[in-house]
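Justification of resources, computational component.

The compute hours requested in this renewal are based largely on the per-chain cost of generating structure records like the one below. Each record pairs the submitted sequence with a full structure-token output. That output is archived, and it is also reused by downstream analysis tasks.
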Amino acid sequence: MAPRLIVALALALSMIGCGVDPAPAARDGAPDAPAEPRDVPADVALDGEDAALDARAEDLPEPDAPVDVPADAPGDIGADARPDVATVADVPIDARADASLDAASDAARDVAAEARVDAAPDVAPDAATGPRVDRSTPQLHSFSFRANEADPAARLALGSETAFLDTRVAPRGRLVVYLHGAGAPTTCGSNEHGRLLASWGFHVLGPCYVSDYGVGNCGADIGGCRLEAFEGVDHHPFVTITAPDAIETRVVRALQHLQRRHPGGDWQYYLDGARPRWGAIVISGISHGASSAGLIAQVRAVDRAVMLSGPLDSGQAWLARAGLTARSRYWGFTHRADPQHSGHLAAFATLGVPGAPAFIDGMGPPYGGTHRLASAATTTDGHSSTQAGGSSPRDATGRYVFQDAWRLMYGAAP
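The structure output for this chain reads:
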């Protein structure tokens, strides 16, 4: 054997014995060798409990038994009964108010995607045929859960969120997202109003959201505060609301949670991937929630906006802005005994709600075709009377006096 070959073999053997890899080192700037793939068990959740939406249908939990949500006590809206009074009415509008809504960029409309789950159902909902609801056991399904049950990242506004679906009636293929008023209620939405809407075939969701910041603290840009509470993206220096605590993310998380709890309700129908399917959603609310519903309809193309005892936000720039939802899909309802009544009428006009104000007492729909409805019916609380519940007037049979008006506004006319 040649001497040089013997020496080379000896050196190679000594390197192997010392644990040195005789392969040449990667060159500077060369990519590292790819890591070996790891075996991940198929049943490991990829992102907490929300990965359950990617599970096979047979692996989903059985529907919960309906939760009995107590009926509304008189004055049910509690914190939301407080008038959402803007102490900065008619103040001059600065350029920041316009910039705030202009900042609803594509990134914002993704609802801070890093904070959400891109969970798609195994079978894509059919927008043409509507939700596939299991009506084999007809009943009213009522749900109550906290926001941090639906999303462990939620930190603020952790009251009880509510949802309703009545399988005794055919589903309309519309979800009503109903926003409570100002404050920090322990129960979000309205039980009585939610049950009534469900009896007309709506899926109903009452999310909890941040509404206790006091609109007077937002100065000439109340729209910026409301938009941050909706998107969880910075729009105003006074509030700090991140995506897990914002309305849009709360809607996504709640629908995912409800799909897991009650797959027979096909709650996922109202999701478009990891976003709400806004075109199938009625955005609605009372007081502070009514004003926020009006703003949301400007930055998302919703099925319609139904505003009860609101909006207010007198003199604010957002009211006059063009939006993504046609004004023909806006509805407003106010009561003459509400101290904010004149402010509501002014906001209807600035917002461009169709028609002239009309008192509906003693009339039947469609009330001359107007979308600006008002009442002077006897009530103990004009502000809270515009939603079903304790102070909303009833006739001798116990039927709500405003029932026909609500049906018209929500698109559920018999």
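The chain has a mean pLDDT of 78. The longest strand covers residues 140-146.
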